[in-house]
Amino acid sequence: MLGMWQESIKANQAALAVAEGYAHALDFMVYAYLQGAQDNEAKRGVERSIALRKKQTAPNANPTGAVLAGYTALAAIPARYVIERGAWADAAALQIEPATPVADSLTYFTRAMGSARTGDLGSARENIEHLRQIAAGLAQAKDDYWAQQVEILRSASTAWLGYGEGRKEAALKQMRVAADLEDGSEKHVAMENRLWPMRELLGDMLLAANKPALALKGYELSLQSARNRYRGIYGAAKAAQLSGDRAKARSYYDKLLALCRVSDTERAELVEARKYLAQK
Question: How do residues 192-247 score in pLDDT, each as one tens digit?
Fold first, then answer.
């Protein structure tokens, strides 16, 4: 992803004007809106995806390639809407709309992460178990690529469960494994725009563990491949601030505000950025 969000919005709007049921384009558009804190526009995209999902028929077998992209897109859109805004209670409550194992894994992962981040560890375990079963089923079907992708989601959510249980160092180790696995795997047409960069998620955990210098390195590495991500830029700004690197903190907070120059929502991170930059 090049991180050219306004250009992406325009391109995908054009695609949807031609094919209004093109879920893949809708997913890209919603994702782009969320990076610029255009949450009201993103919400309209979510509502549009719900209408499309009602028209979707379940496949007889696990689809692949371009066919799978429609299912993963419609599962990813509501998941992105809660993840990108850090709405963890909403993430934990995200409804399961069974489609395909791969698409379903996105919802179970989001639910697991939301549960772990809100302290509902029992629910996190239940959703992680669903991910384990999906990964095992895909492996048994010799669908090795998607089995690995679901295993990455399972590993990451298990790491956050462990963090919530107080096993911080073990959790960080497992989160690094998930990030390394994702970095070493190729993207697929059905998920060109991965749900959540694992390297960025590792940065989040390092920041939570009061390791801001390491978190900053993680965010910066993630931003090399997942460019201009709102959560990545904010994480880098916060990590730099807590590390005492005022110049980098100001630079990243400036980038965050520039990224959100046409935002339609006042997120807490934007308020924080303006407050920091107002300091002399």
Answer: 678 999 999 999 999 999 999 999 999 999 999 999 999 999 999 999 999 999 99
Domain presence at residue 225: yes
DSSP H helices, the chain, are 5-18, 23-35, 39-55, 65-84, 88-92, 101-118, 121-140, 144-164, 168-183, 198-208, 212-225, 230-243, 246-259, 268-278
> Is the pTM of the predicted complex or chain greater than 0.85?
yes
Other beta carbons within 10 angstroms of residue 40's beta carbon come to: 11
Domain assignment present for 166: no
The pLDDT tens digits of the residues spanning 118-150 come to: 999 999 999 999 999 999 999 999 999 999 999
- Counting Cα atoms < 13 Å in the Cβ hemisphere of 219 gives 27
Tokens of 29: 């558009």
Residues 6+ away with beta carbon under 8 Å from 230: 34, 35, 36, 37, 84, 256, 259, 260, 269
Number of folded domains in the chain? 1
